[in-house]
Amino acid sequence: MSDRWGKIHGDLWIHDKFLTLSAEAGWLWTRALSFSIAQKTFGEISRGALIAIRGTDEAAAELVDAGLWDETANGWRLHDWDDHQQSREDAEELSRKRSEAGKKGGRPRKTAKPVTSGNEQTVSKSKPNENQIGFNLPSNVKANESNRKAEQEQEQEQEVNPPTPRRGAYPPDFEDFWAIYPKHAGKRDAFKAWKAAVKRADRETIKAGARTYADDPNREPTFTKHPATWLRADSWDDEPITAKITPLQRDRYASSAYGLLQAHAELAR
Length: 269
Hints:
The protein is mainly alpha-helical. Helix content is 55%, strand content 4%. It folds into three domains: 12-84, Arc Repressor Mutant, subunit A, CATH 1.10.10; 88-160, no CATH class; 166-269, no CATH class.
C-alpha cells in the first residue's frame, strides 16, 4: 500500500469547475489524482492509465472541457499539477539531497568494553546503556544521524505540503508566444513543451506558426488545441485548417447538382 499523500482543498466540492461535472467525471478526477500520486506520474495520465483506473474517453473529455485536465501527446495531465502537488523537479531534488546525505554517513566504531580501574579483567559483559552508546559514537556519525532524520521529516512535510513553484518566472520569448497563442490553458505544461520545442525549431518560426493558427478563420474556439499539445505536435508546420461546408453552401451544392441532372435529362430527350 502506498504511503504517499497529495493535497485537496476543502472548498473543492463547491468549486465552479466541479459543480458542473457529472458524477462519473468527478470520480475519475479523484481516482486519477490518487493514481498519479501513488505511481509518481506527476499528473500525467496515459491512455493505458485511463483504462487501469476505469475511466472513459467521454469522462476525460468532460474534464478537459471543464479545465481540470489538459490534453497531452500521450493522453492527459491534471491541470496545474505543479501548483498544487509535488512536481517532478522537486521530487528529483529531494531524492538527490537524500542521496548526498546518505553518502556522507559512515559506520560507527565498535563500543569499547568497560574495564575496572585496578584490574585488567572485564567487569561485565552486559549491554552498555544508551548514554554509553551515545558517548562512544563518533561525532560525525551522530551528526549524520541527525541529518538523515531531518531529511526524512522534510520529505514527509513535502509529501503532504509540496512547495509551490514561483509564478511569473517565464522568459520573454515564451511570454511572446503565450500572448500570440489563441488559447490560454495549462501555462506551466505549455512552458515545458515550449522549452523542448525551441530545440527543434527556431523561436520565430514557432511564433509565426502560432500567429497563423490564431488568425486562421477556419479555427473553431471549441476545438482549439491546448498550447502544450500544439507545441509537442510541431503544429507550426501544419497546413491551414480546411474550411468546413456550411448548411447554406450544402443546399446550394445540392441545388446545383439537381439542376445539372435536369439539364442532362432535357438534352437526352
